[in-house]
Amino acid sequence: MIISLSRVLISGLMFLGDAVLSRYLGVVGKGEYFYIFNFIFILAIILTGGLEYGNLFVSRKRSLSQLLYNAWIYFAGVSILLMFIIPFAVNLISDFPIKTNFIKTCTVLGIILEIIFLVSLDLLIAKGSIISYVSVRIIRRISFFVMIFAVWTLYDSSELSISLMCYLFSVVISLVMISYFLRSDFSMKLKFQKDVFLQTITYGIKTHIGKITERLHTRSCIFLIGALSSTADIGLYSVTIGISETLLYFSNAASLAIFSRVKNEPEQQASDAKTVLRHVLPIAIGLSLLLAFVGEYIIVIFFGNAFAASNSALKLILPGITVYTIYPIVSAYLINIGKSSLASVCSILGLCGNVVLNILLIPRLGIEGAALSASISYTATALFSLMIFVRHSQSSMGSALLLSTADIKKIKNYIAHIANFTNYR
């Protein structure tokens, strides 16, 4: 319940932050920001090496202090390499929006900070500190929203550099919080343990391939739009993505709940996954239908008339992303039972299909082509992963997707409880 409620709050803060950022930067500026942000985030995910998932899995048998110490040694090594490599890499990317020294510096810092954030944040889950985990994510979103809102109201002209600084400061604030929550688990008296690190990274890489391709599946279109269309189209499509991915918030929250039960037996994890699937999919369908009717008004009211063209792409991507809510839950289940390679296969196939379709459709249809490509590949990925889940959990499609009589009874009791509480108040 805590995870679900927090996810609703985080999604609301993300939406508001994105809306203010869009109004502050405009279509082209938002496109530049979104390209750079995704460049930072995807490289950060790649360069974690799967350490966050490896730590989560190995924490069942190893001390958190040793895992944290090993992680910091890894952070130091990667950071040194990035400071030399990234500025040269940016120069080689012809579609990179802006290549000033300041933007390059922000890019390097962003990648380093995101690597530390991603790995350290999952250590809070390994520690069992779900409240701390949730608090960090909420404060990060609040701090970004407050800063970008202040900038929007105080400055007449938009500045990409200021927006990136707001982003970096929000990550720093969240890292300070993580350091506080993990302060009792860090010790300089420990030594780097090669065997523990290899065990962690070996499992992590197996999971990591799937997570990289999963992220590229949802974001490769940004770079392809930049190469095949324009920065302005990236800005428009960023709104399409931002609104459509609200459907994934409950699914991602549910997958986090499954991750937090990594020590449970496979049979119990299968039961938990089926329960989550039966409840998440109807919610996603309902939200999708709602967004199909009111999406245009949401875009104009919150993002402005300049982004109205995003609505046509939104309607095309909604069917696929609705079905795709299945995938994060199935992926979490497969990772927990040690079958992360199967999750990787699903995401790799989805990514390959998405890239091919984007190359074919973006030059002809623009952002509508990107949305259609995503919808088709999302659907295929989700259905393939569902077939794998049914086989390994020895379940039926019906038990995984359709609400049971017991589920409906629980929902009715929950609604009645809320109604009684409201009347009592």
Give an overview of the whole structure:
- The two termini are 21 Å apart.
- This protein has one domain (2-394).
- It is mainly alpha-helical.
- It contains 16 helices and no strands.
- The protein is globular.
- The mean pLDDT is 84.
- 85% of the residues lie in helices and 0% in strands.
Architecture blueprint of SSEs:
Elements: H1 2-47, H2 51-58, H3 64-92, H4 101-127, H5 130-154, H6 160-181, H7 194-228, H8 231-244, H9 247-259, H10 266-303, H11 310-324, H12 326-336, H13 340-365, H14 367-393, H15 397-401, H16 405-424
Write a brief caption for the model:
The chain is an all-alpha fold and 425 residues long. The chain has one domain. It is 85% helix and 0% strand.
Write out key terms for the chains shown.
425 residues; mainly alpha
Describe the biggest sheet? none
Give unreliable regions as ranges.
none
Principal-axes geometry comes out as: globular
Radius of gyration: 21 Å
Structural class: mainly alpha
Write down how many β-strands occur, each being a DSSP E stretch of 2 or more residues: 0
Total of domains? 1
SS strand fraction: under 5%
Tell me the distance between the termini: 21 Å
Mean pLDDT score? 84
